[in-house]
Amino acid sequence: MSSPLQESLLLPAPPPPIGWWPPAPGWLLLAALLVSLLVLVPLLLILNRKRQRRRLKAQRIIWEVPDSLTDQDWLAALNTQLKRHLKSRGNAAATRLYGQAWVDYLCQHYPRPRSELLAPLGSSLYQAQLTLSPQQRRALQRELLRWIRYNHV
Hints:
The chain is mainly alpha-helical. It has a domain at 51-151. Helices cover 59% and strands 0% of the residues. It has 6 helices and no strands. Helix 2 runs antiparallel to helix 6 (134-151). The chain is rod-shaped, with a radius of gyration of 34 Å. The mean pLDDT is 86.
């Protein structure tokens, strides 16, 4: 069935093989993304771990105050711990505050502060006969932990 004319035709040459270099722009972008992930993920993990360690250390200042203390001594110990920690962070002005000014300082830059829970740290600390229920102590501890979390102490 083949004719002499058909046999005299030259077949087209096959195209040259496609080289692997230079890669397509999508591969270059993917490689850059992978390299940046390999660098950023460990760095972010280290920074997150440092932040968590700092937060746990700050929260520990609340839990280090023993519950066996009298209410007056317990509040004084909490105040001392908070002010000592703030002073170590370079905020020495906060150590001179007391009463309502101290409670107002604690409520600064703090979403939805509950100053009624923090009030025992202010004026109630200087009352002669102070009694706090275990619920009030726990509520004050929770509020101070919120304060620590939101102020990144």
